[in-house]
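In the laboratory, one determines a bound structure by crystallizing the protein with its ligand and collecting diffraction data. In a computational setting the workflow is compressed into a single prediction: the sequence and the ligand go in, and a structural description comes out. We illustrate the idea with cobalt (II) ion.
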Amino acid sequence: MKLGRLNHVGVAVPAMADAIAYYRDVMGAEVVTEPFAMPEQGVLVAFVNTTGEAGTAGTQIELIEPLGADSPITAFLARNPAGGQHHLCYEVEDIEAARDWFTAQGKRILGPTRIGAHGTPIFFLHPKDMLGQLTEIMETPRGQH
Ligand code: CO
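The predicted complex, in structure-token form:
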């Protein structure tokens, strides 16, 4: 397997509107989506982008706020009340091949492969198997290989 580009950094936030204002006004980032709910994953999500070379999109930050009582983000925010860096997401060309690759190395995969916030298949790897980093693996959107 060849690891693709870093797609986004996931940042847990306690208050989405405040976080969006921070990235726009303090950091000068571009807010590229309105917040949208992903109820099956228990999160409210919004994307902000840095700006890359010649005005192209740079790196993406995924803001995630808990949605619902049993959100996986709730416990994270209990430990990090101000919010904080939650996961890193890397692209791969073939999600099933990547799943097999990590499984063969004994890495624990958290749940089934599912459709992520970018509309492509994703899965998460256990932070204790990944140098302490919750790791999201995402299939590169079509047309961007
Ligand atoms: Co993510």
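The longest helix spans residues 16-26. Keep in mind that any predicted model is a hypothesis to be tested, not a measurement.
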